[in-house]
Amino acid sequence: MNKPLPELLLQRAQAIPGTVYLVGAGPGDPQLLTVRAARLIGEADVIVYDYLVASSILDLANPAAECIFAGKRKGDHALPQGELNLLLVTLARQQKRVVRLKGGDPYIFGRGGEEVETLFEHGIPFEVVPGITAAAGVACYAGIPLTHRDYAQACVFVTGHLKDGTINLDWPGLARRGQTVVIYMGSTGLSVLCQNLIAHGLPADWPAAIVQQGTTPNQRTVTGTLFSLPRLAQQAQLTPPTLIIVGEVVKLHDRLAWFKEG
Ligand code: SAH
């Protein structure tokens, strides 16, 4: 039989009716949930989740809880953001214990700030529970330390989401040695990203990787260079979500990848 969780982990007050909990679900592996996230999911009356949340995580919910899909796959917004924000307000006013469950960390490319602002404006009590963001979780499972004394003293997270077909990023700031660049939502723009990093000074043979569905049984890592990665990624026919990691730390993957893929 499992040992009960130590008292320290159980102390916090239980979910309060009428409160919205904005909870990070981590990158996929349910074991990467925080203890607080797992408890709140189990206590919720209603869970509003987006597409990055694994079904195995929703299995932790009370069978009587209502689970509402909020969408958020690219180009498929099941609920427009404004309506979603107001839905949270409505559910809280019905004195439900509401968990708004988001992939990774709610405050990293997750629009968590916008949702909480609406709650604040409507006087709804809320709490935010951090989660393991894709960069941290996926890099670990892919055997790529994001910083390393020999290779990278800084790490930046950027979104590669294309707006009007162009990516507006600080290219000179990104094309730096001694730095790791992690790109969320970058698969469509992978070629443009790699070309721009080369154009702004990084060598064509600078290491780069793309990881599909990191931390899940479907994880696949493709490594290459800024020059070769777009072609290799296309050949591999990766399925989303994917995360791009650029920097010399990618060289460590061959030796440090511990998670069995496929
Ligand atoms: N709030 C989330 C990020 C939301 S943006 C977080 O903190 O992780 C969605 C993007 O995150 C995806 O397009 C992808 O680039 C990345 N992502 C999330 N989960 C991932 C996973 N398991 N594997 C690879 N990339 C992932």
> How confident overall, as mean pLDDT?
93
How big is the Rg? Answer: 20 Å
Measured distance between first and last alpha carbons: 31 Å
SS content category: alpha/beta
Question: So how many helices?
Answer: 10
Secondary structure elements and their pairing?
Blueprint lengths: L6 H4 L9 E5 L10 H9 L2 E4 L5 H4 L7 E4 L11 H13 L4 E5 L9 H10 L4 E4 L4 H8 L12 E6 L11 H4 L4 E6 L5 H10 L7 E6 L7 E6 L3 H8 L5 E5 L6 H4 L6
Parallel strand pairs: 1-4, 1-5, 2-3, 2-4, 6-7
Antiparallel strand pairs: 7-10, 8-9, 8-10
Helix pairs in contact: 4-5
The structure holds S-adenosyl-L-homocysteine.
Summarize the structure.
By secondary structure, this protein is an alpha/beta fold. It is built from 10 helices and 10 strands.
Describe this structure in words.
The structure is a single chain. With 262 residues, the chain is an alpha/beta fold. It has two domains: 5-129, Cobalt-precorrin-4 Transmethylase, domain 1; 134-256, Methyltransferase, Cobalt-precorrin-4 Transmethylase, Domain 2 (2-Layer Sandwich), CATH 3.30.950.10. The chain is 28% helix and 19% strand. The strands form two sheets. Strands 3-2-4-1-5 form a five-stranded parallel sheet, with helices on both faces. The protein has a five-stranded mixed sheet with strand order 6-7-10-8-9, sandwiched between helices. Helix 7 (171-174) links the parallel strand 6 and strand 7 (179-184). The protein starts with 6 loop residues before the first helix and ends in a 6-residue tail after the last helix. The mean pLDDT is 93. S-adenosyl-L-homocysteine is lined by residues 27-28, 52, 102-105, 108-110, 133-134, 138, 184-185, 211, 213-215, 241-243. S-adenosyl-L-homocysteine (SAH) binds at residues 27-28, 52, 102-105, 108-110, 133-134, 138, 184-185, 211, 213-215, 241-243.
